[in-house]
Design a protein that fits this description.
Chain lengths: 472, 472
């Protein structure tokens, strides 16, 4: 299925590449790594896309390292690819034209925390768990949780979100300002620490979601929240996906500020029961979390339970005890492993689409029917408050027929979501895997605009070439 | 003070302009207006900037009208300026190089409302009050309230916000997708109705805040909210601006979801007392609004009153009766008129800056001291939850000395905000008036990037030339 790479940027001239690597070796010594094993680790993709390793990896330690790598690459017209934790899902860190990977894991400092302003300034390589450990003593936290313990630079670059975006927004809503290394190695500052600004074009949000194709993020200023006084978790089974979706719609319409609301379809619940030794009713399930004061959380839970009952929900249990909450969410967190266990040895391809919430029940139901028709297995979990859901498609990579049906399923899933007014990706990004769907979603004019922006900010096409924008 | 127009784009050739107007007349008949009075109305600026009328105005009725105006203007290299209600504050609708103004007031239709998805699709000329009247029966509303009854296209273009941004965000947070007419008259679709997307560069947020310099917004998809069950208003006097700011910081840190929190400094309270025949203590005042269920609102009010007391706040009164709420907010809504009444005949120049909230008390206090030192009068109102505040500077335009002191004050205000990590404008935009401050705020690299984006999307420089990006 490497055929889904629709964009094939040209490799640099061998002499130019050699010259770049020589200059990098002189500058970085043993922080320039060309071993095959390390290169392969940096082309790790959790998709069907074939890995495409870079020619070398530089371990960056400070901003000036990024600047120098970019300058050397620009001088030699060699691609440069930023790397955080390699947990992106659509081939974002692949190097289809080779080039230099900048590994940012060591740039993981918290540079400043401003609890009164609810913001902090960080380096791009810090992961969300490390950040939240650092912040905990100050009573604040960074809410975006995409599942993986991703780096914040990577999360900004893919416009990541996750389970609590329904309350706290996505990376788009939580990045205040960036510093970005541009093609000549100089640094663009995109904003200030003020919560609002109308000062010129929104450069911040142009770089958020740009997947490293317009420059390399060297510093982020992000929003924080106060740690809630009380957190309650709840679970509620439904007869149908439609009932679960309807309850979600009503909860949001009536303004219940639910912090997490996750849908597991019947097949996913079966997988969880089997993997986590649970005995949940094998019907669609909502897992919820409420944040607030003790009274607020009690009222939110009560209001939601009434809505759930109206929509065919079963017993509604909620708890504020940390150990009970953990138990309740374990099934959700283990969803990936539970799917893996359904067919040991088979590949699991994770994909996501997002639709207006009024169409979510239709989209999930039709997708379940399509899976049955195509004789494929793919449990479904959804960030149902946002209309966003994930299929975890099981496929034997050696079974050509199944792989073909799998590819067919993926195309149809995207087309279904787009026909319902949705998008080909709610949170995984375009990378290589979803370029072919952009035109149908936004039209040729939007692609023209994206190409013009890429050309304007990266005229040499050195930043992560072959991603996002399909070749014209 | 017209000297503050730092950007002087070239006027089109007379023959090209004549040719464009001829073609527009043939296409639009009496919807093309060249009378001086109408042209002057479309250069209305509520600033010190000199009005610069366009050469003609076209009254657009549908998207194809915008497309044809743009095509005719592009063919003749004539500027084209979008006009909503003319309530922008930094010369955004001025025509420094002449050209054609497209008046969008008749494109004011609600094209679709999706209450389950909490979104609607509208034409750009609809004003926020008209929109909310249309929506009321469906139990939903659009929350952004910049004060003026502005058009939604204009609000998106200036990235407007206002009193309840602290809870509901700004236009940046509430626009899901746009249709934008580009230089060849074709239409760019920037997004879908799905609440989240990671599908490519964030075109939506590039056009939000672009002040019509990159294309003309012909359609918006915006987020709505459920009308809250209960709304409570409250007022609380403080000994000092610092106490009021500290109460605000604590309220936000502890997660009280206050819907509005407005600061009036002592001088503004004096002006309101005099104009609205009130007898409020003439010390800094916070006006608040809480949205939610009856219980939620009661708890929010109680929690805030405890915080206020700790921070030196006086009596805290809250009410949910609509007539009492209206009375309480009347003083805030009449703030502009109360300032006007302080010195009949003098001009009132409205300006805004925004700082991290931890610096707000410093910034307001130093600004008050500066006014005293410069012998100037300017009541202050602030969207204190966002760190954003407005000065309403009274100046006799015929008094050159006072005008010079006023200009000095404005420069120092912006420099003070920027030195505190803030921005030269939280919600009014750059337009013509604040171009000179962008470089100090973001650096030359950000300006380079903005110029490159302008060049990429509007290579002919026909869209609202002379705005946002200072000449290189």
């Amino acid at each position: 299925m490497a055929t889904t790479n629709t964009n094939h940027p040209k490799r640099p001239e061998p002499q130019a590449l050699a010259s770049a690597i020589e200059a990098l070796a002189a500058r970085f010594g043993n922080r320039l790594i060309t071993s095959q094993a390390v290169r392969d680790q940096h082309a790790h993709t959790t998709t069907w896309l074939a890995p495409q390793p870079p020619d070398a990896v530089v371990m960056a330690q400070e901003t000036s390292d990024i600047q120098d790598v970019v300058r050397i690459c620009a001088k030699n017209s060699v691609p440069v690819i930023a790397f955080g934790t390699g947990t992106s899902l659509e081939g974002q860190v692949n190097a289809p034209a080779g080039g230099i990977c900048i590994d940012l894991r060591d740039m993981n400092q918290v540079l400043a925390v401003h609890p009164e302003d609810l913001d902090c300034v960080i380096q791009p390589g810090i992961t969300r768990k490390t950040l939240n450990e650092h912040l905990r003593d100050q009573g604040v936290f960074f809410p975006i949780d995409p599942g993986a313990d991703a780096s914040l630079g990577g999360m900004a670059s893919t416009r990541a979100s996750g389970t609590n975006a329904v309350r706290y927004g996505t990376m788009r809503d939580n990045v205040l300002a960036l510093k970005v290394v541009r093609g000549d190695g100089e640094i663009i500052t995109t904003g200030t620490r003020s919560k609002k600004s109308s000062a010129g074009y929104d450069l911040t949000h142009l770089f958020v979601g740009a997947e490293g194709t317009l420059g390399i993020i060297s510093e982020l200023t992000i929003k924080l929240r106060g740690i809630p006084e009380t957190i309650a978790a709840a679970a509620c089974s439904f007869d149908s996906v439609r009932g679960a979706c309807q309850a979600t719609i009503l909860a949001i319409q009536t303004g219940i500020p639910v912090a997490r609301i996750e849908l597991l379809n019947a097949e996913q619940v079966r997988a969880c029961n089997s993997y986590s030794k649970l005995s949940l009713p094998e019907t669609p399930l909502l897992l919820l979390e409420f944040h607030g004061s003790e009274n607020e959380v009690a009222e939110q839970s009560k209001n939601f339970s009434e809505i759930a009952k109206e929509c065919g929900g079963g017993d509604f249990t909620w708890t504020t005890r940390p150990e009970d909450r953990t138990k309740l969410w374990q099934a959700r967190h283990d969803a990936y492993w539970s799917v893996k266990a359904l067919r040991p040895g088979a590949g699991v391809v994770a994909t996501d689409v997002c639709v207006p919430i009024s169409r979510l029940a239709d989209c999930v139901t039709e997708t379940e029917e399509d899976l049955k028709r195509l004789r494929l297995q793919s449990p479904i979990v959804g960030h149902v408050g946002d209309g966003n859901f994930h299929c975890s498609l099981l496929c034997d990579v050696d079974d050509r027929d199944e792989m073909a049906r799998g590819e067919d399923f993926m195309h149809r899933l995207v087309e279904r979501a787009q026909a319902m007014g949705g998008t080909c990706t709610g949170e995984h990004g375009i990378g290589q895997g979803k370029q072919k769907y952009l035109k149908a979603e936004l039209g040729p004019e939007a692609l023209d605009a994206m190409r013009a922006l890429k050309q304007a900010l990266d005229p040499q096409n050195i930043f992560n070439p072959g991603k996002i924008v399909p070749a014209a």
